[in-house]
Each structure stands twice: as structure tokens, then as C-alpha cells.
Amino acid sequence: MNPLLFRKVDYTVSKLLSDIEIGEIGLPDIQRPFVWDTTRVRDLFDSMYRGYPVGTLLFWENGFPGEYRLIGTGGKQKPPRLLIVDGQQRLTALYAVMKGRPIVDKNFEERRLRIAFHPLEERFEVTNTPIERDSSWISDISVLWRSDTNLYELIREFLERMRQRQALAPDGEKRIPEAIHRLFNLANYPLSALEISAQASEEEVSKIFVRINSQGRTLNQADFVLTLMSVFWDEGRKELEDFCRLAKQPSGDSKPSPYNPYFHPSPDQLLRVDVALAFRRARLEHVYSILRGKDLQTGEFSAERRDAQFARLKEAQNAVLNLQHWHDFFGVLKRAGYIHPKMVTSETAVVYTYALWLIGKREFGLSGHPLRDIMARWFFMSSLTGRYTGSPEARMEQDLALLRGCRDGEDFIQVLEQEIRAVLTDDYWEITLPNELATASPRNTAQFAYFAALCLLDAPVLYSRMKVRDLLDPMVQGTRESLERHHLFPRRYLEKLNRDWRDINQVANYALVEWRDNLDISDRPPEKYAPEYEARFAPEELAQMYWFHALPEKWYTMEYESFLEERRKRMAAVIQEGFMRI
Q: Would you say 241 and 110 are in contact if contact means Cβ atoms under 8 Å apart?
């Protein structure tokens, strides 16, 4: 019989909060984004008050070697013996409400969780302005557990306020003190925890979590690495989270910030850049063991090895979060023609391209135009082909392995160029890519690569002298997008011909036009509106416009299926030409 990997331990809420406060239980997440809705916090207290069960907690013994980092909140007196695997939101809610501590919400804004209690009706609500003005409520139940609160004095003052507001029946005079005492005694509410042995691997912990978690959420390796950072380098995890928070919106004080219109990263995404730069790895399953100080060959742990690996991670993260590096990198996306955030279909491609960009810069001494150009070609190829979809970690591991024999920047460029050529072959351009354009998917990677190519080629908008690049500028914002995707063969026109939506919304039936023109064209048949618009342009202008927009001559007179097939080939040729301009 296999030995048990866990033991069951009973706690009271008071004991749990005390262990969190001194660091016995590692809850660094009191300042992490709290994702529960406040009504769930209200319902948690309501369930406890009524004596309902609120679920089992899941802890993992912190079996790290050497000296422990002290984590938790306030004055930390003990090393973190237990890490929270399941129950983080419940414990954060209890700690924040009962200790009156602020939390950081999912928008990275600090605020208090304020829950109100109506003793006479024995009802909980999320505190609001009317409740604050109503003397029949305790507007913030945190006051009950403050160290300077005299419970009997609190009850006496509450009853006096109630008597001034209304005459209390004898039953009310009795029920109110009883209800407040009952709420106060939630500090003794029993909670059970399963404590998983330190001998369990992260894979086993993840399996245990999934099997007992009713929501079935899967723990990923980033969860484990970020938890490990919370133990041994909490300020590093905080740096990641602060950077991501600041990247979401422009700085209000005009100071340098990571904000950009293209990519709003999450901490686990930047963590992947960290580990790729520090350890040349993409699979986080090994990184967790490395950071614990484990020798992957012998299986032995070492505090010295752990400290050395964290030193490498810190050095890498300094580069990853460097604002000059960060903003210089986004020149890669612009150079690749992906000038609008909606054109970026894969954030993972952005993450891994940034990692390779940093490796090229820091380890192989590349900078400026050579680095930007090769990485722009790499990003274009990766985005077009969906390189980092499916099994992104495995794919990135292979890409990192390509660099093992590189000695300098010239080798770095040569290796990546060789891989690009191996992917974007003549057959890809002439056969595969036209076939990939035969879709009605609104997020087709080839379609956005085509838009990027139009930017790279400085192409005009269809039936306009404005440039695609200018009207796709993400800084230009109005009530409507400057550019709109227009059905060359209008939707309602094709519906009258009994075409279904898959035929109507084919990628090859779309073109970029100014929104005014799209509105004007409406549902008119192409043989009606196209000659009218084309009369505005000289033959040379029109011929060039036809090439950029992949239109066969007299396209509007063609049979629809023949038009789609021919335009796909021409769109693929435009994408190839745009790529060659990088």
C-alpha cells in the first residue's frame, strides 16, 4: 500500500489567521489580485454564520532546504511551513475582512472589502452608502475583531442607536446581542485542511488539486514557480505584478511606464520570458525544480544551488522589466507591420519573441537594426504560421535548442534565418498559404499577416488615397474605426443568392475601406459600386491598387467562387512581398 501523501488537520478561523499573520501559513497574496466578486465574500460570511460548510483547504508542506524566507503579512515571526494550494481566495477574504486589511482587486486597485451585518434581520450585504447611513446596520463587521474593540460596549452603543431610531420589542432587545455575539464567534468557526506532504511532487499536487476541486481548475507550472518566488523572492514577484498593473493604462503623471497599446502582459507571461533568458528553458516543470536547488542529474537539493539559480533569475528579470528594453522591443512589431493591437492574434508569440530578442541582445551582442529586422521577420513568420499555438512550450524549447551552437550575433541571425526559410518554403507561399486563406474565421492569422503586408508595402486603402498604415494607427480613436472590413460582394447581396454565412464571410471576400465608403457602398452589387469608385482614379493608380488589394481585373464581373480562389493566390503573393520587405 502506498503511503498517504496527506494528513487532515482541523483549524479554527482564528488559528488560521494567526498562522497567516506570523508567516506559518504562506499567504503572500493579500497584496495579489483578488478575483472574487464582493458578493461571494458576503455569501462566505453568511454561510459560516448559518453553520454551513465552506469547503476544505489544501496546503502543501514547504519542504525547501536551507534557510527559509519569511512571508506572510505584518510582523513575520516564523518560516512558512505551509503553502496554500486551494483556498487562497477564501483565506484572503477572511483575512482582509476580519483584520480590516486592504486587498488589490483584479484591476490592480487597492481597496477594502467591507461587509455589513443587520443584527435584527441577521442578514449580510456588501457595504454601500445607504447602509452606512442606516443605524440598523453594522456597516463594517471588521470592527468586531479589532484588538481595541470592547464587544459589550459596541453592543450597548448599537442598541442605543437603534432605540433612538425605533422602539425595540423585547424580542429584538434579545436577538440583537445574540446575533452580534454569534457573528463575533465566527473566529471559532471550524475549517479542515488537507496538508500534502513535502515529499509530493508538483505534478502530484496538481493531480490532487484537480481531483478534489469541484470547479476542476488545473494548476499550471507557473502557479508553482510564482508561489516559490513568493517564498524566496517575494519582491521579485511583486515587481512582475506591479509591472503588469502599470502596463494596463497610461501613466497619469507622464512618468516613464510600461504602458503600450499592443500588449498587456500577465505575471506568468513575463515569468516565461524570465526563465527563457535565465535558463534557456520554456518548460516550467523543470524550472520549478531548478529554483528549489535540485540537481536534475542526482536529485539532490542544495541551498547554495538554490540561491545561485535565484540570482540568475533576478539578473534576467532586471533585463525583462527594463523599460528601455521593453519599449525598444515593440519596434519589432511595428517593423513587422503589426501596427495595431487587434492584428496580434497570439500573445504567446509576443512573449517568446521578446525572450529571443533579449537573448540576441544580451547574450550575442546584437542591437539596433540587425536585431530588430531579424526579430521582425521571426515574429511575422511565427504569427502567420501559428508557431506558438498547440504546444507552445515544446515549440519554444526547440527554438531555444537551435541557439546552442551560436557563438556570436552573426550565428544568431543565421540560425533564425535558416529556420524561417525552412518554414516559409515556396510550397508554403504557393499552396499552403492560399489554402489557409480559405476560411471564414474572423481571427485568421493569414488575414492579419495580409494587413501587416499592406502596412509594410505602404499600400493605400481600397478606393482611397489614404494609407492603410496611417488609418491603422492605434493612437487614432473615434466613435468608429477609421478602417472597416468591407465585403467586396456585400453580405445581403450574397444572401439573396442563397449563399450561407461561411461563403459570405470568406477572408478573400474582405477588403479594408474607409468607414464612410463602407457605409455608402452598403448592399449594392459590386458591378454597381465598383465602376463608380474606380472612376475616381487614373489607370496607373487603379492598377497599383488592384495589385495591393489582390483584385483580378474586372473582379466584380467574375463568378463568386472563381473570384475567391483567384484572390487567395494574389493575397498570398502580397503577404510574401510584404514579408520580403522586412
A: no
Distances 178 to 59, 118, 153, 189 between C-alpha atoms, Å: 34, 12, 14, 16
DSSP state of 67: P
Kind of pairing, strands 57-61 and 510-514? unpaired
Asked if 419 contacts 375 with a C-beta cutoff of 8 angstroms, the reply is no
Please provide the size of the chain in residues.
582
Which grid cell is 344?
Answer: 496580434
Identity (one letter) of the amino acid at 494?
Answer: L
CB distance 443 to 345 below 8 Å: yes
Band of pLDDT at residue 515, cut at 50, 70 and 90 = low
How many CB atoms sit inside 10 A of residue 389's CB? Answer: 14
Q: Each residue of 367-379: pLDDT tens digit?
A: 899 999 999 999 9
CA distance 189 to 311: 43
SS (H, E, C) 220-267: CHHHHHHHHHHHHCHHHHHHHHHHHHHCCCCCCCCCCCCCCCCCCCCH
Least confident of 98-107, 117-126, 190-199: 98-107
Determine the Cα–Cα distance for residues 325 and 422; give it in Å rounded to an integer. 29
Question: Of 444, 436, 360, which Cα lies nearest the Cα of 402?
Answer: 360
Within 10 A of 252 (CB to CB), how many other CB atoms are there? Answer: 7
How confident is the model over 345-359, as pLDDT tens digits? 999 999 999 999 999
Q: What contacts 178, CB < 8 A, 6 or more positions away?
A: none
Buried b (16+ CB within 10 A) or exposed e, 43-65: ebbbebbeeeeeeebbbbbbebe
**Terminus-to-terminus CA distance in the chain, angstroms?**
63
